[in-house]
Amino acid sequence: MSVPFSRSVRAEWIKFRSLRSTWYTLACLFAVGLGITALAMNAAAKDYPGEEPWDPTGRSLTSYIVAQLIIGVLGILVVTGEHATGLIGTSLIATPRRNRLLAAKVVVAAAVAAVAGQVLMFAAFFLGQAVLAGQGVPHAALGDPRVLSAVTGGGLYLAAIALLAAGLGTIVRATAGALATLVGIVFLVPALAALFPAWLQRLFFYWPTLGASAVLKTVPDPDFPHPWLNLAGMGAGVVVVLAAAFAVFRRRDV
Amino acid sequence: MTIEVRGLTKRYGPDTVVDDLSFTVAPGQVTGFLGPNGAGKSTTMKMIVGLAAPTRGSVTIGGRRYRDLPVPLAEVGALLDAGAVHGGRKAHDHLLALAVSNGLPRRRVGDVLVRTGLDGVAGKRAGGFSLGMRQRLGIAAALLGDPRVLIFDEPVNGLDPEGIRWIRDFMRSLAREGRAVLVSSHLMSEMAQTADHLVVIGRGKLVADTAVSELVRGEGAVLVRTPDPGFAQLLATAGATVREGAETSLVVSGMTSAEIGKLAAYHGVALAELTPQRVTLEDAFMELTKDSVDYQGAAA
Fold first, then answer.
1. What pLDDT, in 10s, does the model give residues A33-43?
2. In chain A, what residues touch B60 (CB-CB under 8 Å)?
3. A116 in Cβ contact with A158 (< 8 Å)
4. List of domains in chain B
């Protein structure tokens, strides 16, 4: 008569919600995400070109660039917070089946990131459109073509980044190392993308901040005709990283 | 329920940290797990609860591997590292998460907080706890599932005398309740006051597996004082090892005081003193582990 998996998930949720750092990080996510949206939209309204292509939805969601780092920190901390304190030993004594423990952590991280990501993207969209409307610049409504797809796609993108971060945290085991790796993936590689050889360029089709974030635009980008395919590709990459995380977590001594 | 360690071996690269170790931890008594620092005690305990994988050998608890226990906390409680709490989490939440993970009722959290005397600080964040309070929190976590087997790694390290006494009495009371208690220490004097049974290891190997009473019962050397200069020779002929002690005494080993007395009477030798030197646990421990201490201090 084993303990049901739902208990493991609930235990991880108790751990997650009982730390102040969790709520500070979430507050930071929304403060920074919406703050950047407000600033960016004010700037966008001023240099509205007055002609097409004009993507008010895409512009209001650009705060994803910074938000992905903060939600990534949340994903990393779910795992590395326990390694830093040695608590992981206590957790594994209570739940010696390692797949189960890591799975419970991933479920909690995924659920929180999915909700936070969606809420942030919807809030950014509405805030951004309100700023544009206030300045008398053309703005979008949720019912316009491709808008709902861009907003929900943005939320899913952020959730996937959080899971990527949780996987990196499991593999690297240190907050700083995992965060540096995440910054490298979402910022450095895209910034230096042109330097990479051609065969690697194909990977950028599905890379965070590059191809995978095409879904956040409503004006079709000729480079990415099927943006959900790009996002799905990134999802597959995250699954690979998580699989590696499970493999090392199962085998490693604590 | 007993812990059965059989042929347990752990290698890290070329280093064999635990070497073919076998022993049993029986219920109803405190088993002291003793050895110098670096002898492999913590690694062995980690292997018992599945935190580290053995290179060879096995550990079973009540006949099952730790990871196969359906409700681990209800069968085994372990405190391996008192620092292993998140400083930002309240004591109550720390315990609640552990209880929920094993499907234990919430009231167990309150129960163990009371039993370890932490009920007054349940709402405080563990980061502000003293080492003694962290030890208690770790013990509270170990007791959550009311387990039959308890494992503590160096529980008195860094505690003040009052804390040491509390833990010592606590271990004794857990054993009296019929639980199997395994406690590690590198201090023999500590174990002398807590343990019923001793498992002594050095450099990962089993050095002794014995009842505490057994270890100190064996008579050590005997101090003999006599005006007769020829007695040392007689003792040597009888098979004893004799060396000169302080103030013209002889330190005799290999014969009991009764045998020495008989020998003296047979030869009509007058003895001024005949004193068995009681073996302290400390002596026994030093004797047992002298070959297996990693870094010995150079004699002055």
1. 999 999 999 99
2. none
3. yes
4. 3-216 (3.40.50.300), 219-278 (3.30.70.100)
Q: What ranges in chain B are assigned the alpha helix state H?
A: 41-48, 72-75, 91-101, 107-115, 131-143, 161-176, 188-194, 212-217, 231-237, 257-267, 281-289
Say what the ipTM of the complex is: 0.92
In chain A, what are the domain boundaries?
Answer: 5-251
Interface test with A, best of B15, B18, B51 (most A CBs within 10 A): B51
Q: Which residues pair with B222 in a beta bridge?
A: B252, B276
Return phi, psi of residue A212, to 5°.
-65, -20
B15 Cα to chain A: minimum distance (Å)? 16
Q: Is B287 left (phi over 0), alpha (psi -120 to 50) or beta?
A: alpha
Is B69 part of the contact surface with chain A (CB cutoff 8 Å)? yes
Which tens digits make up the pLDDT trace of B113-162?
999 999 999 999 999 999 889 999 999 999 999 999 999 999 988 788 88
In chain B, residues with a C-beta closer than 8 Å to the C-beta of A20 are: 88
CB contacts, 8 Å: A88 with chain B: 84
Kindly identify which residue of chain A lies nearest to residue B138, measuring between CA atoms. A90
Q: What number is the average pLDDT over the span A130-146?
A: 92
